[in-house]
Write a structure and sequence with these properties.
The protein is mostly helical and 147 residues long. 71% of the residues lie in helices and 0% in strands. Helix 1 packs antiparallel against helix 2 and helix 2 runs antiparallel to helix 3. The longest helix has 32 residues. The two termini are 19 Å apart.
Length: 147
């Protein structure tokens, strides 16, 4: 296996790691939208305010886009790989904040919870989080090894 061919395989592996992350993420987003999450903007009406959701989704879409641009440019523009590497931990941090806010607590959201996110399937949340962690790790390792 040549160096370039191995690097291309690693790049495609990283890009394909984003798919099992995006699948459950899209499922969670559709559940939230379907149950009125876009209309729930006041404090106490939702555990996941719009700024937090958008703050995670926008860079989550930008990361694979940067990585795709890097692969399409055959590694000529290394800045896009570094951009994907920089975005991945930010997305993970926002996702972790969302997880902590979503977890059931004995606080104000415990009784009469009418939030859209109460409809989230635990398996989808776990699958999304686990695959996101693996994706962040792969992105960082491949970028540090390549660039």
């Amino acid at each position: 296996m040549t160096g370039r061919k191995g690097a291309d395989r690693a790049g495609v592996l990283v890009l394909s790691a984003w798919l099992p992350t995006a699948g459950p993420g899209g499922c969670l987003a559709s559940v939230r939208i379907r149950h009125g999450g876009l209309r729930q903007r006041t404090p106490g009406a939702t555990r996941l305010p719009l700024w937090l959701v958008v703050g995670q989704v926008v860079p989550a879409v930008a990361g694979p886009a940067c990585w795709t641009a890097y692969l399409a440019g055959a590694g000529a523009v290394r800045g896009t790989a570094w951009a994907a590497c920089a975005v991945a931990p930010v997305v993970a941090a926002f996702g972790f904040m969302m997880l902590l806010r979503w977890l059931p607590s004995p606080g104000r959201h415990s009784r009469g919870d009418r939030t859209a996110e109460r409809h989230f399937a635990v398996t989808a949340v776990v699958a999304h989080g686990m695959s996101a962690g693996a994706t962040v790790l792969l992105v960082v390792l491949v970028v540090l090894r390549r660039v």
